[in-house]
Amino acid sequence: MTTGERIKMLRKKHNMTQEELGAKIGVQKAAIQKYEKGTVKNIKRDSLIKLAKCLDTTPEFLLGWDETPSNIIPIDEEFVMIPVVGRVAAGLSCFAETNIVDYEPVTKSTIIDGEQYAFLRVIGDSMYPVFMEGDLVLVRCQSAVDSGRYAVVTIDEEDGVIKKIVYGKDFIELQSINPMYPPRRFEKEEMTRIRVFGIVKEIKRKF
Q1: Are 36 and 125 members of one domain?
Q2: What is the pLDDT along the chain (207 residues), one digit of tens a residue?
Q3: Catalytic residues
Q4: Strand pairing partners for 186?
Q5: Same domain, 22 and 91
């Protein structure tokens, strides 16, 4: 199924005319007609995101990326889009469309094909001054990281946090950078409370 066919299918499912859908995303009826016929090969990023929201789906589905393990959306030959998730929980359920709050472009050289990535916005000051509140952290989703690396982890299935993770023989320690926050150590059976969501690969800071 092509992108145009997916748009048409979902538009009809929502009982919308081409004119109504166009009005919702700020384009003319003719643009929707071109999308559905496939005469527009590269739908603009903003329009794609608006289309997905109006049709209660994701840009990945519209582009056919639901059929691959990757959640990366190509923009052009140089850039791709990575989802910014509102919260991180255990597993990959955070990629549900209701939890994707935006998309952020990165160069293709930043990522590895076939891997899952997400941006997470830093909250709080426990990792200051390396990670500052409001920063966007690019995370490659994986269930394990080497000792001493910065990772996003969940504790007791709660929302994910960024910490330096250190492994010992019978413990896992989560370390903050800000000295005001002491390390948290989980020993023996308590280690099962920790789940690694992914490894931190990059920080984006906007002024």
Answers
A1: no
A2: 688 888 998 888 888 999 999 999 999 999 999 999 988 877 887 888 889 889 888 777 787 665 443 567 676 678 888 888 877 654 444 555 547 788 888 998 888 877 889 999 898 899 999 999 889 999 998 888 999 999 999 888 777 889 999 999 899 999 999 999 999 999 999 999 998 889 999 999 887
A3: 126, 163
A4: 172
A5: no
